[in-house]
Amino acid sequence: METTFTVAEARALVPAMRQHAVHLAELRADLVEAQAVLRRGQRPAVGGLPEVKALEARLQEAVDWFGSRGIQLKGIAPVIADFVSELDGQPVLLCWLEGEASLDWYHSPEVGFVGRRRLADAL
Known about the structure:
43% of the residues lie in helices and 22% in strands. It is elongated and about 55 Å long. A 5-stranded antiparallel sheet has the order 1-2-3-4-5, covered by helices on one side. The protein is built from 2 helices and 5 strands. The chain is an alpha+beta fold and 123 residues long. The chain has one domain.
């Protein structure tokens, strides 16, 4: 069953989500760098292939954190997260992009990220 959030409920999760997004971004960067070093036939700073596989597992755990809280993770580079919600009786996705300080955007499920509008316009 899909979790539905009020704007206040979603905004209450933003501080933890931002912290997890930073962690995810760090893991993402470490993994990409280690994979590039491995492709060159060198040993990454994190260690060999087993350590790179462990990084992949930690990245997956970071991704799973979002879903376990009902947050739809739409991208990891950059991190894009949606919260299922409703505005004026219409289904919407409250939308957050890595680097944003707060949750101030929404879009209809049909148009996606490119159709983002400020929440202030809807409230």
